[in-house]
Amino acid sequence: MINDVAPLQLGKYNRLQVIKELDFGLYLDGFEGEEILIPRVYVPEGTEIGQFLDVFIYRDSEDRLIATTLKPFVTVGEFAYLKVKDVSKLGVFLDWGLMKDLFVPFGEQLSKMAVGRSYLVYIYIDEETQRIVASAKIDKFLPEVDPIFNERDEVELLPYEYTELGIKALINKCKIGVIYKNEAFRNVNLGEFTIGYIKKIRDDGKIDLALGKIGFDRIDNLKQVILSSLHAQKGFLPYNDKTDAEVIYSNLQMSKKDFKKAIGGLYKDKVISIQDNGIYIIQSE
């Protein structure tokens, strides 16, 4: 959100008034006598003294406050999945959409971060240096009190890491859960928000996730997937309960177990017929 009242918010968007113009840019009123430069390259055409601009505030390489109309991928107080651009003696630098890269100190890395790879990080202001930095130690930025979830809840997921068990994902920006690899029956792109569901809440508070709806709602959804495929293929699909599981997964993005439940439901509803060579949609009279 844009901040249109004092005080100035570092690492966030602010609405500031133009108070001075120079050849290399404009100066904005940063409150309490602070003048903040927005370089000429970021000034919208036709901007005049007295106008207000919506700008993002950060620090340049000399720790001076600077304004830009560019929109970074993330702001202070948020999580993001960002790529490492460079490594220094003190840490790594992430691409966050601005000319000055985002710094992650070595002490804020869970493991050695490599150039070209992306990681889930939290963006915050370091109290000692007052600089905008990032941390890969996600757990310490999650709420101390677990949020209240119920099984079958629909949630927003940010998948961010493959593990031996499956895919770790950030749930509603406040809790970590796991999508087990044998239940990831559709493509999952790390770093892209997606909708998921709470499958199980364990006694230790850990959460199992699902990409599709749970229970009867999930099977109803899979029935619609099969029907859509049938219509797209002129009423016939060359799959039945004897089809190899990998073929079903590759073409329909569901397990064979779920496929059998879904076609069983469609058969019971008299929507399809099941033959030796596949399934046919039953055309209504």
From TrEMBL:
Domain annotation Conserved virulence factor B first S1: ranges: 10-69, 76-132
One Pfam family of this chain: S1_2
Domain Conserved virulence factor B-like winged helix residues, every copy: 224-280
Highest taxon of source: Bacteria
InterPro entries xrefs: CvfB_fam, CvfB_S1_st, CvfB_WH, NA-bd_OB-fold, WH-like_DNA-bd_sf
Family under the similarity heading: Belongs to the CvfB family.
Name the UniProt record assigns to this protein: S1-like domain-containing RNA-binding protein
Organism of this sequence: Arcicella lustrica
